[in-house]
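#structure-requests
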Amino acid sequence: MKNIVSIIFIALLLTACEKTIDLKYKDNLSRIIIEGNITNEAGPYYVKITKSIKLTETGTYPTIDDAVVTISDDAGNSETLSTLGNGTYRTNLLTGVEGRTYTLTVQAENQTYTAQSTMPQHVPFDSIRIETDIITGETEYSVIPVYTDPFAKGNNYRFVLWINNKLINQHFVQNDEVRNGAANSVRLEINDDDIEFKQGDSISLQMQCIDKNVALYYRTLALISDSGPGGGATPNNPPNNISNGALGIFSAYTVEQKSKSLP
């Protein structure tokens, strides 16, 4: 009986102390989002420009269709991108070349934004290895990209995963900080809470060789968000390579893709 009286007293005390808290969102202003890529595959390449919305708002991000967008490289090539509408801009002539540094310049709403990214040398993507393990009667699958890291340090890799042609909205990044110059045996850290792997599923994996600034962006994004590829920038935007406070990322990377069925 004494314990019951004590519990009732504590509950009344907590109720009496209750008050309404008005949350003040920090940095709750609309900001420009710039997302652009250039690869070693044949163009065209695209840049998407939108604006973020306030944390208290819902809906799609508004687009910016009157920006002036250029991409240049350190070999003296430069191109002003064509406007396609819906915030999308396209190259027509520019070619992605390994080892070159590309500069993106965006002039929008009386502001100028710049970003640089260096396309690494291509590292061959050999194959996909699937390992299985039986845990509590269920088959667990591990997806391992097979490639050999070069002896030169500082290589970074991003992987984009599809299962049965469905894009998996998660971020996967690896580097050579621990296993430099070795064949990779590290599996992708897939959050399979919402993924049910089944025998015969088709796995497609794209390997991107990315520079260190882009790797930092995606590593941080993986820690704070599961928005995944194509998921857009988050309110807690990770450190990126675009100036003047813009959200998003500009990446020059090599690309290679492999497919495999689950055994």
